[in-house]
Specification:
The chain is an alpha/beta fold and about 190 residues long. The protein is about 30% helix and about 15% strand. The chain has 2 domains: about 5-80, Rhodanese-like domain (Oxidized Rhodanese, domain 1); about 90-185, Rhodanese-like domain (Oxidized Rhodanese, domain 1). The chain has a 5-stranded parallel β-sheet. Strands 2-1-3-4 form a 4-stranded parallel β-sheet. Strand 6, helix 6 and strand 7 form a beta-alpha-beta unit.
């Protein structure tokens, strides 16, 4: 099978994406593709406008991923204009999340680096699994609850949401803006 890598923004990805694709933003590719992609299966790139995808493909090759099958001609819009199946992930604001802090049907997942979490604090009630280790800890995340994922700015949160969705988690939401937006809205981060 192929590996579909959607390099659009978290909001673009949340609004609609190809099923089983993972969302790694352009600048995050060198940091995170090694966690989620294998070297054997072909890679298909998806973007909105297919801007400078040759440069992106060369980036993959430099890191050992020389099985680039290509990119979706016409970008993501070509996919849905053909009536193909589209999936979505949820998005929420800090105000939305604060309303669910005590909701037992919600599982808040912090995917930041543990050092960053320890230094800056965390959202009350959140559980921590680093985004790069997420696939090794899927059994610790409940399938029967709404998962609200967050990082510091929303990009790793979107990546984590896409990975969870790919693995069959039915209700996944990304906190847009992450803890940066959380603090900007004057909500506290807790240090243990």
């Amino acid at each position: 099978g192929g590996q579909i890598v959607d390099i659009r923004s978290p909001t673009g990805f949340a609004g609609g994406h190809i099923p089983a694709s993972i969302n790694i933003w352009r600048n995050g590719l060198p940091l995170y593709m090694g966690y989620f992609l294998n070297y054997e299966d072909p890679v298909i790139l998806v973007d909105d406008f297919n801007l400078d995808l040759d440069h992106v493909a060369r980036h993959f090759v430099r890191l050992g991923y020389d099985n680039i099958a290509g990119y979706l001609a016409g970008g993501f819009s070509a996919w849905f204009e053909e009536g193909e199946r589209v999936e979505r992930t949820g998005v929420c604001s800090p105000g939305d999340l604060v309303e669910h802090l005590d909701d037992p049907s919600v599982f808040i997942l912090d995917v930041r680096d543990i050092n960053h979490r320890d230094e800056t604090g965390h959202i009350r009630g959140s559980r921590h699994v680093y985004v790069g280790h997420l696939e090794k800890h899927l059994d610790e995340i409940p399938l029967d609850r709404r998962i609200i994922v967050h990082c510091d700015a929303g990009f790793k949160g979107s990546l984590a949401a896409s990975v969870l969705q790919k693995h069959g988690f039915p209700d996944v939401t990304n906190l847009l803006g992450g803890t940066i937006a959380w603090e900007a809205a004057n909500y506290p981060l807790i240090k243990d």
